Amino acid sequence: MLFFFALLILASVFSTKISERIGIPVLIAFLAVGIIVGSDVLGLFYFSNAVLTKQIADILLIFILFDGGFRTSRDELNLVAKPAITLATIGVIITALALGTAIHFIMHYDFTTSMMIASIISSTDAAAVFLITRQNPLKKKLAATLNIESAANDPMAILLTIAFVESLAGKSSTPLQFIGELAWQFSGGIFVGFVLSYISRFLFDHLKSENRGYYYVLIIGVILLTYGAADLIKANGIIAVFFMGYWLGNSSFIAKRGVSNFMEGISTFGNMALFLMLGLLASPRNFAAVWKEGLLIVLLMIFIARPIAVILSTLPFRYSFKERTFLSWGGIKGAVPIVLATYPAAYGLSSGNSVFNIIFFAVIISCLLQGSTLGFFAQKLKFTVPKRPSSPFSVELHSVRKSKLDMFEFQVYDNAYCIGKKLMELSLDKDILITSITRNGEMVPPKGNVALKADDILFILAPVSSGEELFSYLKNGPKQTATEEL
């Protein structure tokens, strides 16, 4: 079993090279590997446990969404907090209502069943959206809107799904109870995330271990502690870990750079394992009986329900028609709707298996149709930004105690002031040291006569307090005094 699983991981990793060449999202490659080796194609591996899938997916999503919050800058959240949260709450309700009504009148399902199906597929998927926006760098406003919305809209979809599933199962809560639960899910999750971010930072700063591996173990512990604490008080754990990651990522603590690199690896593995597992769970033979329903539902979602939700939710905010169109197309479905699709069967509803297959097929179509074209539309609408070259080398400062110095990474853009200047010509303070330069994938010794070029990546040892001023100097040059301006 371990040997076979290792082969699947290797196949998934190298399938990303193919997906990059032909321009499809990495998540499609992971799904494809799972489907191909699954029971209905090559028959190499049989996996049909939807309950186990839900349990594993819940754990993986914890780390995926934490990493998403950890990499969300304060500027990004401040830029789009109101529209993103509106889309994640009111937008999900509008999506479910519009889609459920369409399913009821067009497909002639009873209204409660229609609303249950619509609620299951009403949220966008954070794992899918994060992967695609990283592959296709977007303008900050749009990328932040899609990422934050997708990370925050699961609680509303979960509550709506449970409400309609329980109604069909003969259990239901009052509207007042529903509103109260929703408010607590969000507010309680944010509160837990805020408190645990401070506790986590304190723990990192006081661990003082010579073994950096303990810091990586610690980050896993505090992430699970955050989720568990939120779950203990019946708040939303996903919201808690996302905002804990956001506050922790926007603060300074010991071993932050190493933790960041470690969590990037964990998040990448989580995404790969999640979609690989969902591919294994897929049974193309079952799709033959539900493909018409699944296709109709996803088309109603893409072209009716999602656009209505985006337009109404963003009316109070400044988005152009092109931006609203792009946000509508960015409502990609992924793991979360499939996980929610296990709920009807878990509650013993007779339609459980049929609903699961319909949702699974609809999600695959959404991934293929929207996921593979989102980058193309972003380019056509001129919403993309140049992909930042990444360094194959990593230089970090590992310290077991607070330090006034830190290692900064600086990307030299085309119009930067420092281009063409030799290192000896830069007016850097005596306590600032350029330790290495990455150029065209190679490490260049930082000698004084080396002239900087566009797309160079500099690793700079400097005081923490001088970071912003240093970056401003390298980008724009020295600040002019009032006398010089005159």
Give the tally of β-strands: 4
Count of runs of 4 or more consecutive helical residues: 21
Main pleated-sheet profile: 4 strands, antiparallel
CATH level 1 class label of the largest domain: Mainly Alpha
Number of domains: 2
Series of secondary-structure elements, N-terminal to C-terminal: HHHHHHHHHHHHHHHHHHHEEEEHH
What share of residues is helical?
A: 55-70%
Instruction: Write down the Rg.
Output: 24 Å
The fold-level CATH name of the largest domain is Na+/H+ antiporter like fold
Calculate the terminal CA-CA distance, rounded to whole Å. Answer: 75 Å
Q: Uncertain runs with pLDDT below 50, 5 residues or more?
A: 481-486
Strand order of the largest sheet: 1-4-2-3
State the main characteristics:
single chain, 486 residues, mainly alpha, Na+/H+ antiporter like fold, 2 domains, 4-stranded antiparallel sheet, 4 strands, disordered C terminus
Model description:
With 486 residues, the protein is mainly alpha-helical. It has 2 domains: 2-380, Up-down Bundle (Na+/H+ antiporter like fold); 405-485, Regulator of K+ conductance, C-terminal domain (Alpha-Beta Plaits, 2-Layer Sandwich). Helices cover 65% and strands 5% of the residues. It has 21 helices and 4 strands. The chain has helices spanning 2-22, 26-37, 50-70, 74-107, 111-120, 126-135, 140-152, 154-168, 175-207, 213-232, 237-249, 256-281, 284-287, 291-313, 321-329, 335-340, 343-346, 352-371, 374-380, 467-476, 482-485, and strands spanning 405-411, 433-439, 442-444, 457-463. It has a 4-stranded antiparallel β-sheet, with no helix packed on it. β2 (433-439) and β3 (442-444) form a beta hairpin. α4 packs across α7, α8 crosses α9 (175-207) and α9 runs parallel beside α11 (237-249). The longest helix is centred in the N-terminal third of the chain and has 34 residues, at 74-107. The protein starts with a helix and ends with a helix.
